[in-house]
């Protein structure tokens, strides 16, 4: 397409940025890291709950 300069979009807010960048600024990068950490903690919690329920089911069947 003529007239459109090469660019990418910030993976957090969607603003147009340079092709070699991933985030538009430090705020978006920090928000991404916080969200990633929150998702990791949620997955750990869910696996712990799953194993807890399985443990209770195994030992309460007696």
From TrEMBL:
Entry's transmembrane regions: 42-61
Database matches in InterPro entries: DUF2116_treble_clef
Keywords, alphabetical: Membrane, Transmembrane, Transmembrane helix
Name of the protein in question: DUF2116 family Zn-ribbon domain-containing protein
Provenance organism: Geoglobus acetivorans
């Amino acid at each position: 397409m003529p007239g459109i300069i090469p660019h990418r979009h910030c993976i957090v807010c969607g603003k147009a940025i340079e092709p070699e960048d991933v985030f538009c600024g430090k705020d978006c990068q920090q928000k991404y890291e916080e969200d990633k950490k929150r998702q990791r903690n949620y997955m750990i919690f869910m696996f712990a709950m799953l194993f807890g329920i399985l443990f209770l089911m195994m030992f309460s069947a007696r």
